Fold this sequence. Notes:
mainly alpha
Amino acid sequence: MHGVSDSGPFDDDLPEDFNLGDLFGGSGDPAEMMTNMMRMFSGLAGGGGGLDSAMQIAVSIASGGSTEANVDPVDRMALEQLGRVAELHVGQATGLRTSSGSPLTIAPVNKGEWVRRSMQAYKPLLEQLASSMATPAVDGELADDPQMAAFEQLFSSMRPMMVNLTTGSMIGHIGSRALGTYDLPIPRPGSNELLVVVPSLDAFGEEWSLERDELRLWIALSEVAHHTVLSIPHVAQHMTLLLGKYANAFRNDPTAITDSLEHFEPSGDFADIQARIQEMFGDPSAMLGSMRSAEQEAILPDIAAATGAIVGYVDHIMDSIGSTLITSYGQMTEALRRRRVTASSSDRFVERLLGLELDQDLYDRGRAFIDGIVEREGEEGLGKLWEKVEHLPTPNELEAPGLWLARIDL
Length: 410
């Protein structure tokens, strides 16, 4: 996305046999592909069709287009037991409720099921994003140009579909490597069910030669710790509000699409046309016609401050209890923390599309903030962080925990 990422969402991370026709029909027939594309356009305009299509794409990408086996019931029972252990220890370490309302459960899933549930959980944000990008920002001479007005009317129905399609593709890539519910620290209000992607977790353990049961306990602890914080009502509301404001603040540049189409001269070679359309659809700056706005730039520091405090706190809790429960905790933590900051450009695109910047710098700043509070005021002082929304750090306070301590009179 122009002003957000230098690379398009499909750069380098698609399967080698990826074919644009697979997204819109699969047969390779131009007429069928265009028919399906227009069906998706009209479906979204009618409400919801585009998101359904995006989910199908996401599931296909995450699963590699293959049929996935269901999770073994033995794995389900083992994770349920580990979940109870994790909930007990996280509750004792934090002094916080680990769930809101119903009991906390852990559901082992495959990649496709993770995508389906995550797309539904992110649906409010995706709808806000689509609505924001469907509203053009035309000014100056272009505002009075009848041709531009007609062009905007034509493409206004396409933009939301492209947002959902692109995001569906990206969430598919995230789903192909996600280990649990909170690979992205986004609240999921109303749910006390945590997801663990068993095939991905087992593959990661084999790659790093990690003990299987200890790795599963690690992910259970991490998921419960994230959920404990993100299910605090005022924390969930604050994060949801910030991410919603960001999603609503995209501003369209209609000339982005016209510029991309200006030099498009169809040849008689369908394969060449297909490749060039794929290139255009894979360039968000051209097809979405949107850019990060000044309003979004102003929101980003607040999102980073809240997110940094959350991930820093989770790391602190994990370190405080993990070493007593997991023999290989140090090795396991190093592998998993290295993994989270070496995400692909596709994964980063989704983060930035939603207003998140989950790089190593943010994790370091968040942990330094938490450590600074503990050094000065101990765990009791740290507990003040989650008492009310006013106690969440400002951007300046994330860099200087002393400022936070002074503001809340500790």
